[in-house]
């Protein structure tokens, strides 16, 4: 079975690898370089802390487990960083209620005293911690997406980079071939749309109207700095995690609105939380576009109107890609995964029109 996967972000790489394991011959096509889309500018926190409804929470929990399995399978892998996540800020009672609600769902969560928080994150200025303590979610992690993509694509996948998919040759309700901008034509028994923020354009090539409400977001990368930050931390004005090579990745909802002032404030807030960050400079500021289907939920699996066309598009794609990639690959090779994918079908948009 020849499958063309459109897009070499985390989704395209994960779907491609899952298809190869099922015996398919896979070509992953990307307009640019693998990992240069949203997957190259993401906070990439692997979690299910604020995911609703319940089916979406459960999908993310399964995504977390899939990452843990892959990391255990490749102990020398260099993409998965366990250590959990810490959060505080806002109304303590509301945060405690969130911890309780997640615990009731079986999600690993606990309350830490300030001293316990400092044991985990000794670089924090103790005066910045709330006396009531913080919430800790031990099962969470962060991922270096480009290393994950490199690993997944290294397994018997033909990668065509720097050549955009320009159109599909259809006969009736079946895609026969994928046409690239270069003029190259790839004969296909199935096509998977993993085009992230561009998914609507690639859906339109098959006559499918996929509503997207993508959201541009800003990330600030510091220079390498010797600060003991070991996990994902959500403090009131700043979200941060380690980034490769001793760098630190900073984000806040305010910085998404753009502007140098917001970047400067974010760095000041980060340095007041972790005083060691004062020694860092801003190495780069990148904008990533969150790929968000119209109702916020993933679009995964087969499509009723085009028999051999499949979707793997969502926000939280770093968390979801490995698990969702397996489910989508099952459907591509003919297995029905309605059990898991019913809430995430493309057709829900047509029904609501
Ligand atoms: C600031 C920010 C923070 C985020 N934080 C998190 C987080 O903490 N946890 C989490 O799980 N998720 C997070 N996300 C979301 C997550 O990063 C995305 O869901 C995920 O990276 C999407 O991966 P993808 O493979 O679908 O898309 P992409 O990585 O964008 O890959 C799609 C690829 O398709 C290619 N393409 C597009 N059109 C064509 C075409 N016509 N022909 C060929 N190729 C094409 C593009 O070049 C691109 O490389 C965040 C996103 C952002 C922007």
Automatic annotation (TrEMBL):
Residues 2-330 form the FAD dependent oxidoreductase domain. The keyword rRNA processing does not apply. The keyword Cytoplasm does not apply. Keywords: Oxidoreductase. It holds the Pfam family DAO. InterPro entries: FAD-dep_OxRdtase, FAD/NAD-bd_sf. This is Glycine/D-amino acid oxidase-like deaminating enzyme.
């Amino acid at each position: 079975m020849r499958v063309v996967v459109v897009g070499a972000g985390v989704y395209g790489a994960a779907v491609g690898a899952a298809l190869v394991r099922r015996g398919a011959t896979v070509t992953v096509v990307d307009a640019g370089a693998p990992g240069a889309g949203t997957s190259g500018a993401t906070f990439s926190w692997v979690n299910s802390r604020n995911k609703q409804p319940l089916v979406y929470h459960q999908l993310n929990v399964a995504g977390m487990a899939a990452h843990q399995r892959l990391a255990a399978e490749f102990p020398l892998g260099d993409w998965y960083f366990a250590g959990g996540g810490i959060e505080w800020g806002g109304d303590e009672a509301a945060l405690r209620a969130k911890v309780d609600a997640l615990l009731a769902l079986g999600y690993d969560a606990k309350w830490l005293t300030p001293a316990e928080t400092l044991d985990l994150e000794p670089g924090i200025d103790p005066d910045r911690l709330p006396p009531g303590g913080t919430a800790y979610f031990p099962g969470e992690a962060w991922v270096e997406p480009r290393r994950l993509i490199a690993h997944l694509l290294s397994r018997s996948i033909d990668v065509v980079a720097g050549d955009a998919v320009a159109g599909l040759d259809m006969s009736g309700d079946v895609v026969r071939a994928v046409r690239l901008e270069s003029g190259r034509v790839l004969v296909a028994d199935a096509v998977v749309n993993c085009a992230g923020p561009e998914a609507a354009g690639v859906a339109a090539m098959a006559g499918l109207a996929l509503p997207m409400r993508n959201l541009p977001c800003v990330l600030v990368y510091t220079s390498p700095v010797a600060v003991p930050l070991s996990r994902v931390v959500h403090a009131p004005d700043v979200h941060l995690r380690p980034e490769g090579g001793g760098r630190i990745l900073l984000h806040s909802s305010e910085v998404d609105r753009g502007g140098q002032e917001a970047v400067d404030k974010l760095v000041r807030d980060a340095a007041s939380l972790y005083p060691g960050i004062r020694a860092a400079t801003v190495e780069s500021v990148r904008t990533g576009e969150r790929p968000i289907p119209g109702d916020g939920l993933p679009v995964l699996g087969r499509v009723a109107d085009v028999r051999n066309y499949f979707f793997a598009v969502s926000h939280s794609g770093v968390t979801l890609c490995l698990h969702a990639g397996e489910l989508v690959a099952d459907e591509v090779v003919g297995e029905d995964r309605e059990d898991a994918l019913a809430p995430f079908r493309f057709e829900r948009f047509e029904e609501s029109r």
